[in-house]
Amino acid sequence: MNGTQDLNARVSKNDKLKANENYVAILSYSLTGLKDSEDYFAFKQDYDSNDDLDWYGAYNDQDNAASIIVPLNIQPASVKAKSSTKGYINVRRNHKVRTYTSSGRFSHRYVYGHYTYSFSAKKNIKHHGTCYKLSGKNQYVPVSKVTLR
Q1: Whole-angstrom Cα distance, residue 90 to residue 149?
Q2: If pLDDT is split at 50, 70 and 90, which confidence band does 134 have?
Q3: Contact yes or no for 141/121 (Cβ under 8 A)
Q4: pLDDT value at position 59?
Q5: Which of 35, 109, 110, 119 is the most buried (most CB within 10 A)?
Q6: In this model, does residue 65 exceed pLDDT 60?
Q7: How much is the CA Rg of the chain, to the nearest whole Å?
Q8: What is the 3-class SS of the chain, one letter each residue?
Q9: pTM surpassing 0.85?
């Protein structure tokens, strides 16, 4: 969409927001206390006869409300594991296991087999599944390579 937000997609009160999706929040607030003698520009919403949402701007000093359109991008949250959980890298001795960043990219760092590391969080990363975060680093190791202790 080249930076433009889709104002036709509606989210109702009980809908769950999806991770890695873009949304628009419309924040409304009161304009009471502003001078009545001046005109202000505000966006208004109205449903036309076809039940479509229309947005238009109007100068009006009679209405005491305004709205701000704010773009939102929902990021998945890390789930905390037990504080400083220890994990054993369960692969061949000294075998290198790739680590990934929180977005799923290769971090150009490795952990080694038959070593124990400390993990601080657990997160589901796209294309890699559930991963454990190395304590103090932005490096994630796939669960399939780790045995918790």
Answers
A1: 11
A2: very high
A3: no
A4: 43
A5: 119
A6: yes
A7: 25
A8: CCCCCCCCCCCCCCCCCCCCCEEEEEEEEECCCCCCCCCCEEEEEEECCCCCEEEEEEECCCCCEEEEEEEEECCCCCEEEEEEEEEEECCCCCCEEEEECCCCCEEEEEEECCCEEEEEEEEEECCCEEEEEECCCCCEEEHHHEEEC
A9: no
Q: What's the length of the chain?
A: 149
Q: Report the pLDDT averaged over residues 89-116.
A: 95
Structure tokens at 134: 């190395």
- CA 107 vs CA 27, 49, 100, 101, 104: distances in Å: 38, 54, 5, 6, 9
Tokens of 1: 């969409």
Tokens of 88: 């054993």
